[in-house]
Amino acid sequence: MKEIVLEVRDLVKTFILDGAPLNAVDHVSFQVHSGEFVALVGPSGSGKTTLLSILAALLTQSSGEVFIDGQQLSAMGESERVKLRRSRIGFTFQSNNLIPYLTAQENVEFMLRLNGTLGKVNRLRAEELLARLGLEDRLRSLPAQMSGGQQQRVAIARALIHNPAVVLADEPTASLDTERAFQVVQTFAALIHENQRAGIMVTHDLRMCKYVDRVLQMRDGKLVNECKTRIEIEALARGEH
Question: Exposure string (b/e) for 33-46, b if CB count within 10 Å is 16 or more?
Fold first, then answer.
């Protein structure tokens, strides 16, 4: 039995909209094990990004619990949450949030600097990871010198470089063409499996689901379906589900 790395218990996030409460995340529960890559899908406004922000310790829940590597997020103070985000969570946003005056390699190495682990071995790992994502000729390029797709791949490398327990990706293929999107998600999945991380990817492109181990479908803040067999996942990826 693989270790449970991420556990969500009866999670609720309530916002007040026009004076009335709205559950953007509505009593959601699930687990993600080491070496498991999960896709989170659903229509716009279904609560996917809100849920991901809570899992990234960027947003606090209204009720329920989240455990990352056995650590309970609601029991942490803000400084502890910052430390957890920096050391145990990798996150890529729809906007890549690269530092404009750092090169591709320096942007990836930035996470290592924050954690005090930037040495010769990890510098080499950063180069190898960028090369694996097809950026071996862009190591010294600034973000402004790269396409949107190249910038997004740098952001993915940055999310993985510090060996986080949990890797969260919000629409990582949004700025990629179809061929490159498949390549990136396939590599993303391979790295999660090889390094025994727990990965969650929010995506609107169901074709990308063929590279994941499980699919969670959201609607109106709730988890409404789970695809966990290869037959179900591949049917969903073909648009047959």
Answer: bbbbbbbbbbeeeb
Rounded to whole angstroms, the Cα distance separating 214 from 83 reads 29
pTM of the predicted model as reported, rounded to 2 decimal places: 0.89
Provide the domain limits for residue 17: 4-237
- For 238, how many CA atoms within 13 A lie in the half-sphere containing its CB? 7
Q: How far apart are CA 109 and CA 119, in angstroms?
A: 10
Q: In whole angstroms, give the CA distance from residue 6 to residue 69.
A: 6
- The tens digit of pLDDT for each residue in 83-106 reads 999 889 999 887 778 999 999 999
Domain count, the chain: 1
Lateral strand order in the sheet of 71-72? 20-33, 4-17, 63-68, 71-72
